[in-house]
Amino acid sequence: MSDLDLDTTARTILTENDQGGYTIPTKGLYPYQWNWDSVFVALGFATFDPDRAWREIEMLFEGQWRDGMVPHILFRKDDPSYFPGPSVWGTDGGPIPSSGHSQPPVAASVVRDLVEADPSKTTLQRAAALLPKLMAWHRWYLAYRDPDNLGVLAVIHPWESGRDNLPDWDAALAAVDVKDIGPYERKDTSHVDPSMRPHKEDYDRYLSIVAACRKVGWDPAEVARSCPFFVADPGVTFIFLKANRDLLNLAERLGQESEAAEIRGWIARMEEGAKRLWNEDLKAHVALDLRTGKQTNGISSASFLASYAGLTDDLTLSALQAHFDRIAAKVRYMTPSYDPDHACYEPLRYWRGPVWAMINYMIARGFAEAGDFARSERVRRDTAALIETGGFAEYFSPVDGTGAGGGSFSWTAAIWLAWASPSRANKAA
C-alpha cells in the first residue's frame, strides 16, 4: 500500500470510529471515549477537519468531574462488550458515567498545537473556553496526585498511567491484596490473543484497587491517602510538565497573567521534583513507589520523555542518547516500551515491550526540541515503517514489526496523519 493509500486509510479509520463528536479507539475492544486517545486523535483530525479536532477535545471535557478531574473513560453508553463497565466503577463525580481516575494529561499540549496551526479569533475563543477547564484539571493533579508537594505525579492504578501492565508496576501491584472483587469475566481476551494482554493475576489486582477506591466513594484526598497503589510515574510526570509549559503559552497568549504566574510555579515545582525519579545507577528516570520509597530498576519508553518535558541538561540528554543507541542496536524498530536488556521484557505483551506510535511521537518531538534531529527522525521513520508493515495496529513488535492488539486503531491512524506519514514529513520540510 502506498503512503497516499495509507493516508486515505488513516482518515477512513478516524471517520469510521467517530461516534458523533467523539472517537472510540477501535471497535469491539474499546467501545467508549478514552481520555488520552481522544486527545491524540484530535491531532489526526486536525490534518483534514480542524473543527472536528476541537470538538473531540471539547467533548472529552464534557465529562470533567466537579473536582476538576478528567476521567480516563467516559461511558457515554453501556456496552456489554467491555469490562469493567460503569457499574463496576460506581462513580458519580461528573455529568457522564465514567471511570474513577484520570489518564496522562496531554490535552493542553494538543490545544496549543491547534492554536499554533490556526491562531484565528475563533480558535483563540475555543482555547479560551478550555483554559479554565485545563487549569482545573492540572490543579486536581497537583492536589491529589502530588499531595506531599514532591514535584512528581503518582498514579493510583496502572490504568491511570496509560501503560497498564508495565513491569514498573509489578512490585507495587504484588503488594495489593486481592479482595472485594467477586467473580468476573474479562472481555479483552475475547478480542485479542491472551498472550498479548495482562495476566489474570494482574487483572485481579486491578479490580481490587478499583474496589478499594469505590469503598471510599472515590474521594480524591482519601484515595491519595489510602489507595493500596500509589506510584510516581515518569510518564505522567513528564507529560504533565510538558503540558504545563504549553498551558503557560496559552495563558500568556490569552492575556491571563494570574493563571500564567500560577503555572510558572507548577513548572518550577515539577522541574525540581523530577530529580526524585533519577536513578543514578541506571542513569535514567524511573518510577518511584511512594508507599515504600523504592525506585524501579528498568528503563521504559517513558524514561525517554524527559526531553519532551524540557529536561535537556547535558547529563540527562547524553544518558538518554546512550540508552537509545544501546537499545537501537538490539531491536529493529524503536522505541520498545521496555528495555530489551531487562528480564521482564516481552516484545508482544502490551506495555512490556511493544512499540506504541503515540509514545514514539512524543519521544521524537522531545529529541527534536533538544536539537537531536537524527534520533528524532530515526523514531519517525521507524514508526512509519511499522505502520507500513503492520497496519494501523494498537502496538507493534520492536523485533519484526508485527502488529498486535486492536486493529484499525484511532490513535495510530492519527499519529500517521499528524507526524509519521512521509507525505506529512515532506510538507513539514
TrEMBL record:
Signal peptide: none annotated. The keyword Kinase does not apply. Residues 30-412 form the Mannosylglycerate hydrolase MGH1-like glycoside hydrolase domain. It comes from the Bacteria. GO terms for molecular function: Glc3Man9GlcNAc2 oligosaccharide glucosidase activity. Keywords: Glycosidase, Hydrolase. This is Mannosylglycerate hydrolase MGH1-like glycoside hydrolase domain-containing protein. It comes from Roseibium aggregatum. The lineage of its organism: Bacteria, Pseudomonadati, Pseudomonadota, Alphaproteobacteria, Hyphomicrobiales.
